[in-house]
Amino acid sequence: MKLEGIYAPLVTPFDADENINYPALEQLIDFVLSNGVVGLIPGGTTGEVYALNDAERLELFRFYRQVAGKRATLIAGVNAGATRDVIRFSQAAEEMGYDGLMAAVPPYSRPTQRELLAHYRAVAQSVSLPIVLYNFPWRAGSEIGYPVLDGLVSLPNIIGIKEASSDMSRVYEMRLRYGERYQIICGSDDQALDYFFWGTTAWIAGAASCAPRQHADVLEAALKGDFVTARARMDALMPLLRNIESGSYTPKVKFGCELLGIPVGNPRKPLLPLADEERREFQRIFDALNIRL
Predict the structure, then answer these.
(1) Which one from 64, 98, 134, 182 is the annotated catalytic residue?
(2) How far apart are CA 156 and CA 131, in angstroms?
(3) Number of structural domains in the chain
(4) For residues 264 and 14, is the Cβ–Cβ distance under 8 A?
(5) Residues 120, 162, 195, 254: which is the catalytic one?
(6) Residue 162 known to be catalytic
(7) What is the structure's pLDDT at 49?
(8) Can 7 be counted among the known catalytic residues?
């Protein structure tokens, strides 16, 4: 499985009572798929997976499968605190006909490299689907280090890694160590152009929920080798990415969807809507991109 294009871990719309708003989610799915997104990832951080119960996560898997059909590559976000739960979500996604899985480091427990290697081995051996690892040490508390990547080389369904460490030296080192063995997927939004220059062909982008075409246009130019155009497009998108990356990531992406007229609602508590000053600054930057449904 070769990943190429923009893959969106969409926000999860909620109504005023914090129930999942499925009509709004269908509208959002249709919007991003008609604006350059090629893959969808239910169960991502931007989708507030940490605030969903098991039944909601599985229902979202089913809903994405039903609504997206064959229009998109579907990659299930299967992260959980225990290996057995990651396996359970992975097997459920496989049974539903998903194309792949994305598995982050289990949160809060801070596994060692030996423990993390055993975790990923168990998950990979439980399914036949391609698996993308997700390295985001700032959030997870532990890094997918080279001992883990060394130990997974022999497992063919571990196909790549979404790298969100913001440490470009890891990209260089992984290329030196593994060549083409692992696909390196951009997960550090404001460094995307650097990733593409070094051969990355896929971007898993949370902000693609509200600016899908702008993300797709950057990558499209880069894949053609036109880095002058790619840089100009990235220059236009960068203020939005830097603003979102500076904090309140999910509330800002949700507000962007609201500005488009897609009623995704507020995040589930403990996250709160943006403060008035944050809303004004975000809207100023967002309006400059002239994004429309």
Answers:
(1) 134
(2) 9
(3) 1
(4) yes
(5) 162
(6) yes
(7) 97
(8) no
